[in-house]
Each structure stands twice: as structure tokens, then as C-alpha cells.
Write a structure and sequence with these properties.
12-stranded antiparallel β-sheet, 4-stranded antiparallel β-sheet, 5% helix
Length: 519
């Protein structure tokens, strides 16, 4: 009781900050609170709590300057929608001072930070903001959509209202706003993926594949179709935000058609080759972008897909859906195919559903068998010849729609130990359903039991020998044996930086120093 009373006293407001920019006043209350318990030392874990006047939608931490950027955005009165207007707040975590705040309309404005540089975008322009004051330093007629925080180079397209999207990608020096290179990369069907393949080179999936050196914009191009224009549909407004408009190229533009995107696969890169499937073909390229082989795909069937390597074969799982904006819609027909890895020759291509509006929710390979999860059934096929092995239907009135196989990131408590379901029994399938129950299946897909989903913990972070699992707004830190060494009041959305854990909840933000425990 004495300890609780002491913490109550400690939680008295230590600071009250007010800042005004353009008549925009924000107050932040700072207090300390008990955020958890170290079970090794039996001591409380104390955190700093920042209380804001509005709901916190998201946050970023600038590790260069130790700044916190909070996006404040309330819900509608019925709690179903996000308000379009809110505030962005910049806070100094080291000095506990509010630097500045700014009103923002989220649908047409954004503020991001990259390696200590703050970029504000609005109306097709980007502005660099002074970290200390929020004042504008420079302006460029381009909305930055991706940035390299090390090289301090941003990438973006010019937006032209009521015109076809400009496909000229620009590289922008984020320190002064100068355009340092230009490169034509078609974004007609959106960017499907972007990631680094070395320190300075990106691979971009956009109407094909493109490599791009962020310093000079140079690289190779491989062109293919990754979407479809449905001219039979009337023009619609997507309601997407600015970032979505940048990526898709149609977020704020009247197109005259509905654009269906995402008719692509994942990208597989080994040491010397790249594998990729589009709407029209599946291909193997060398690391320099030269096509080694391409095999045509059935135009009326192909949709969003997944590819994977297995021995000397390249497998393709065609899922039976694509996207319009961010809405998933039925498209194409699910099929399972295999291709010779060296020649691209089709070994088999089998449609695995003849019903309309049916798509693959999940899949898993075990030995020489692949399992496909649909809404009401699981089908198994041979990976040798693509022949159907079995088809098991489930009572969706009882279980709800089938969703996916639970993987190694889901933990459950057994006695005093926390372990993943797959660690506890790797010879069973765990099928997550919409009813709130997960079915335990044997290799014959026979139901052997059920687990309530509220028993699950999600493994979301590993630091050293410690694993972090969460359930709702509670995190449990596990040692290598699966024993709990600490409990803290944070969710799986929390972020770990410099031995500190950061998280938000409604209108409060918490900073928890775990240095003593982690060290």
C-alpha cells in the first residue's frame, strides 16, 4: 500500500506545456506512473506518461534528435470514422519540452520525418520544416513518398490535378530541396513493392520491375502489366489520402475508369536471379535485369499471386483476388501451377476453384502436399503433379469463415511457460476462424480440438535473449525458457529504441526505460 501511495504521489503532474502556432494551442501533461513489474527484482517498472488533449492516431520517433512526433486525430461521435482534421505535435523527449504543433487535414496533408529531417506535404508540394520551430526551410513542387534517411534523398512524383498522372520520378536532396535527378517509372498500376537490394539501390515493382540507385536515379527496367483498366465502370472518387494518391497515381484524379491493381506476385531474389509474376507472364531475370525466360499466363484467370521456390521448381499460387484502391475484390480464378526453374516450362497449371467469388485465404506446404484455405473448406494438392488429394468442408454456421493457419508468432500459456503453438506441437495445424475459435487439425485435416482465440499472445519483438509477447494492452517479456521476467502495460504496436519501449493508448503516450532488465 505504501508503494502504491508513493506512486500516486509521483504521478502528480510534473510539467504542463503550452505552445501556440497560428493560434493552435496544445497542452501536454507529463507524469510518472507504474507501467509494469520486473519479476526478477520484484521492483516496479516506472514509465513517463504524456497526456494529450486529443486521441493519438500514430507516432514517430526521431532517433537523431530524440524527438517525438505525434499525430492527433479524434474519432467521429459514433466512434466509427476518423475525423479528417487534427494536429501534429513535435516534442523533445530529452528536454521534456514541446517544440511546436500544427493543424493538419489528413486527407490532403502529411508530415513525415526521415533521418532527422521533417517533411510536410500538401497540394502536390513538399516543405522541409525546421525541427526546432516548425517553420518552412525550403519548398519543392513534388510530394515526397519515400526517403533514404542515410543519403537524405527523397523520391516523389509531381501531382497534376485533373490530368493524367506524371510518371516522372524525381530524386530530391532533402537538405535543400533541390531536384538532383529524374527518371521515368510508370505508376499507372501503382507501386506494388519497394525495398533495398543493397545500401543504395532499390527495387521497385511498378508496371514491372525497376532498380534505382537513390543517388543518381539510374537502373534497369523490366516492363509488364500488373493491373487492369475497367472502362465499363463509371468514374469514382477513391477517398484515399495524399500518400495513396502518390503511389497509385489516381487518388485525387478523375480517371474515367476503375483501375484494378495488385495483379502481381511477391518478388524472389536469390544470389544471381530474380523471379516475378505479373498479369501476363511469370519470369526469371538475372540480377542485371536481363530476361532469362518468360512464360505466358492465362489472361482470364490470373490475379494477385504468390510464388515460391522448391528444389528445381517455381510454384505459383494464384489467389483469385485483386484490389481497387485498398478494397479487395474477387478477380480471376484460383489456380496452382509449377514451372521448371531453369527453362520456365510449365509442368502443370490446375484451377482449384470453379465457384465465383471464391478466393484463397491462406496456404501451407508440408512435404509433398500443399493445403489451401478457402472460406468453408481446405483442399490439399500434390506438389508433384498438381492433382487434388482431398477436400475437407467445415460447418461455417458453427465456426464462421475459415481465415488462415496460425504460425509461430502466436503463443499460448501452458502451466508457467509461454510457447508458440508450433513449438508445442509441430505435427498439428491450427486453423484460425472468424468465430473466435482456432481449430486443432491433424494431418488428415480431422478436428481434434478447439482453442479460444482470447487465449492467444502475439510475439512481436525480440531483443537479445528476450522475446516480447502481447495480449491486448499487456506485454510479457520472456526469457529463452519461456518464463515471464517482466510485465508491462504496452501493446504489440509499441516500438523499441535505445533500450526504451514506446507506446500509445487513446490520448496518452508512454516511455518505458528497460535498460536495467535488458542489460
Amino acid at each position: 500500500m505504501k508503494k502504491t501511495a508513493l506512486l500516486t504521489v509521483m504521478s502528480i503532474i510534473l510539467s504542463l506545456f503550452c505552445f501556440s502556432q497560428n493560434k493552435n494551442e496544445i497542452s501536454i501533461q507529463l507524469s510518472t506512473k507504474e507501467a509494469g513489474k520486473n519479476l526478477l527484482s520484484q521492483k516496479p517498472i516506472i514509465g513517463k506518461e504524456y497526456i494529450l488533449p486529443e486521441r493519438i492516431q500514430d507516432f514517430q520517433i526521431d532517433t537523431v534528435n530524440n524527438y517525438l512526433t505525434l499525430q492527433l486525430r479524434n474519432l467521429s461521435k459514433n466512434g466509427k470514422w476518423l475525423e479528417n482534421k487534427g494536429n501534429v505535435v513535435r516534442f523533445d523527449l530529452e528536454k521534456n519540452t514541446l517544440k511546436w504543433s500544427k493543424k493538419i487535414t489528413y486527407q490532403v496533408e502529411s508530415i513525415e520525418q526521415y533521418g532527422g529531417i521533417t517533411i510536410y506535404s500538401k497540394g502536390g508540394k513538399s516543405y522541409c520544416l525546421d525541427n526546432e520551430t516548425g517553420n518552412q526551410l525550403w519548398e519543392v513542387k513534388n510530394s515526397v513518398l519515400f526517403a533514404d534517411p542515410i543519403e537524405k534523398i527523397g523520391l516523389g512524383y509531381k501531382i497534376k490535378q485533373f490530368k493524367d498522372p506524371d510518371n516522372t520520378l524525381e530524386g530530391i536532396n532533402l537538405e535543400n530541396g533541390e531536384v538532383i535527378w529524374q527518371r521515368g517509372i510508370n505508376r499507372e498500376y501503382s507501386w506494388n513493392d519497394v525495398f533495398y537490394i543493397n545500401d543504395s539501390t532499390l527495387i521497385i515493382a511498378a508496371a514491372g520491375l525497376h532498380t534505382l540507385n537513390v543517388n543518381d536515379g539510374k537502373g534497369w527496367d523490366y516492363f509488364t502489366i500488373t493491373g487492369k483498366k475497367d472502362y465499363s465502370a463509371s468514374a469514382v472518387g477513391t477517398g484515399l489520402g495524399l500518400a495513396s494518391a502518390l503511389l497509385t497515381g489516381y487518388g485525387s484524379i478523375t480517371t474515367g475508369y476503375n483501375l484494378i491493381r495488385g495483379i502481381v506476385s511477391n518478388i524472389i531474389i536469390d544470389s544471381i536471379n530474380i523471379y516475378f509474376a505479373s498479369k501476363e507472364k511469370i519470369s526469371k531475370l538475372d540480377i542485371n535485369g536481363n530476361v532469362i525466360w518468360s512464360t505466358l499466363l492465362p489472361d482470364d484467370l490470373t490475379s494477385n499471386s504468390a510464388i515460391l521456390l522448391n528444389n528445381d521448381r517455381l510454384f505459383m499460387i494464384n489467389k483469385g483476388y485483386a484490389f481497387m484502391g485498398y478494397r479487395q475484390l474477387n478477380f480471376g480464378t484460383p489456380f496452382f501451377a509449377a514451372f521448371n526453374l531453369n527453362t520456365g516450362e510449365k509442368i502443370f497449371l490446375e484451377t482449384i476453384s470453379n465457384e465465383k467469388k471464391e478466393f484463397i485465404n491462406d496456404y501451407d506446404i508440408n512435404g509433398d502436399t500443399i493445403f489451401f484455405v478457402f472460406n468453408n473448406r481446405i483442399s490439399s494438392y500434390s506438389i508433384e503433379n498438381g492433382i487434388l488429394i482431398s477436400n475437407k468442408e467445415f460447418d461455417i454456421e458453427k465456426y464462421g469463415d475459415l481465415k488462415y493457419f496460425v504460425g509461430g508468432h502466436v503463443f499460448i500459456k501452458q502451466d508457467t511457460i509461454y510457447a508458440s503453438l508450433l513449438e508445442l506441437n509441430p505435427h498439428r495445424y491450427y486453423l484460425y476462424t472468424k468465430s473466435g475459435k482456432t481449430l486443432i487439425l491433424n494431418r488428415n485435416l480431422e478436428t481434434e480440438g478447439e482453442i479460444n482465440n482470447d487465449q492467444f499472445y502475439v510475439y512481436y519483438l525480440k531483443k537479445g535473449d528476450f522475446r516480447f509477447i502481447a495480449k491486448e494492452n499487456k506485454t510479457f517479456i520472456l526469457n529463452p525458457m519461456g518464463n515471464v521476467v517482466a510485465e508491462i502495460s504496452t501493446s504489440r504496436e509499441s516500438k523499441f529504441l535505445n533500450n526504451k519501449l514506446f507506446d500509445k493508448h487513446e490520448n496518452s503516450f508512454i516511455e518505458i526505460d528497460l535498460g536495467d532488465l535488458i542489460d
